[in-house]
Amino acid sequence: MNSSVTRLVWTDDLNTGIDVIDGQHRRIVDYINQIHEARLRRDSRLVAEVIEAAVDYTLSHFGFEEALMEEVGYPFARAHTKVHQLFTRRVADLQLRFRAGEDVAEELHSLLAKWLFTHIRNDDADYVSAVKSRIQHGNEARHRGWAARTLGRFFRRE
Hints:
Shape: elongated
Order of helices and strands: HHHH
CATH architecture: Up-down Bundle
Helix content: over 70%
Low-confidence stretches: none
CATH superfamily: Hemerythrin-like
Distance between the termini: 33 Å
Structural class: mainly alpha
Number of helices: 4
Radius of gyration: 16 Å
Mean pLDDT: 84
Largest sheet: none
């Protein structure tokens, strides 16, 4: 086991200032940490469950984020979606290898950890001003209604 793989810690520089997005990002960090903990326990059944849940939640987050960018007219939404699609293919490959019996938990943990923080600080930071601008220009109530409806489409209540 690689000792360099450790728990991720959320830092304030990861906050976008959009509460719903920040909450989703924190939840993904929690899942990444759960993968690490399940692996430390050497519980392959738990590792499998957490990987499936983490990937499912992350894909739902991507869908929500893409719908949000479209809603506010973010001009680079297609490029952002392409970044999500490329990452999704990498994760899908790891999932296939895992299902075939290969131990990819450390590789997946590392990939998610490195990619997520870089993606938040760079790609996600780019759309924040478009979203905040739209919310601040009198569409706040309409945006909250859209967000509630869209959250219901992408995320199950637990």
